[in-house]
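pasting for ref
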Amino acid sequence: MQRGKHKNLAKRSRYYQGSVDLDFIQKGSDYLELCKSFVIFICTFDPFGKGRHIYSFENYCIEDQSLKLNDETTKIFLNTRGVMDDVDEEMKELLSYVENSTDTYVAQTKSELVHQLHDRVNRIKQDKRLEVEYMTLYEIFKEEFEDGKIEGKREEKVEIAKNLLDVLDDETIALKTGLTIEEVQRLRNENK
């Protein structure tokens, strides 16, 4: 969340992208282990001054913009003060909620996502455990992201292993994917 006008958002997004990638892969690992990633800023100001609610960036060839790098990275800047009709109503309501997270505002929204988010925020505020141990919403989202990241990496390893079953032995597949030999053998038996 970016509340005040910050300079260097582009460089900051580059830094965060690098940090995300470093968290996904260990030194010496295969680059194929890198997952599709998004860096998302929610800004309470228009970071580019064009009136959009959403600005999405991917890497393209400068000389031929029809040529995409396909590095599976996207940087998204959401603007709570957008004026264009460039996102759906649910996104507009979500962005408005960032500015006005009151019960009154939520009561008039149609967005199920906004209602769920508001309920979650209220539960967090009322959780007695948080009186002793303060946990920011960012930390909760980070935990959920980490859980999803671990599950996503596991699913990706399983898919890679399945693709290697015809060409490599179980030990090599286990070594290359990080799965156990037992897991690879189970996959082999399931795919017979």
